[in-house]
């Protein structure tokens, strides 16, 4: 059996558990190692499995750099843990630095979650980190991204970039159901969902204005983990906004219940506006549509383009145009929007076992030297 050593930025990340589970179901043995990320308040929780490489804190890049450097300089513990692995998979750039130190002649797969703003700048720090990235990419056999825009806008223009495989953030079949679109509440109000990693302060400000501006017509339901680097006390902030409810963190199994209460989903993200947020296809896009909820998106970003191609979603050019559409919104208009979302093919939204199987086959192919290209969207230069 092929064994993967998986180095991750946060052992408690639900996405890590999903990726690990998918690989194991497809016949890949996985050994986990990574950091344990805390929020700025110091909150800690138990780690489900894996070798801890140290603790980091959300938003504290300096501490993360120190922990990464420590593991690069002293990798013996991790080398011993991964001594019998065949492939090293690194989830984000800091993990890739460690992977390059321990891999030896084993293939390295880089799972790129996003593109940090430093990699898009021309300052001294940006030039340094780009030089580091250039070296690390030369060690990789494959890059995994969740949006084709990362390949198209970033990796495709890099000389000698390894092949790129696109695996979108689709909903696991175990939690997705054939959902009917929600009907408007009896009192005529519509509810907007904002779920997931809550790190965009501007989104909170816009949603707060919507709650006040359309009192009696709109509510906002928020669930997830706020970034303490962006919000000092998110729960208190949300409690002060009329028609806004924050229910805290959730598990994947909670998604059907959460989305059943909502009509629209906020997929707009201005975090690192004009850079990484322009290229993302976030989890909440697939989740919302899978549960029959209408995504709200900007037309000029990858999320809006994804929806346009499927003729679905409430797509706007800017926030003033969103105001106009919400002012005119009624039950009939919402029904038409919802029916278009429900018509999106399930294969565009929900993961199948074949995705995990083909990823596993690709990884096995790297070990055998065959490349493992089995039909997933792989872009080569």
From TrEMBL:
GO molecular function, one term: glycosyltransferase activity
Residue ranges occupied by any Glycosyltransferase subfamily 4-like N-terminal domain in the UniProt entry: 20-169
InterPro entries: Glyco_trans_4-like_N
Protein name: Glycosyltransferase subfamily 4-like N-terminal domain-containing protein
Native source organism of the sequence: Croceicoccus marinus
Lineage of the organism: Bacteria, Pseudomonadati, Pseudomonadota, Alphaproteobacteria, Sphingomonadales
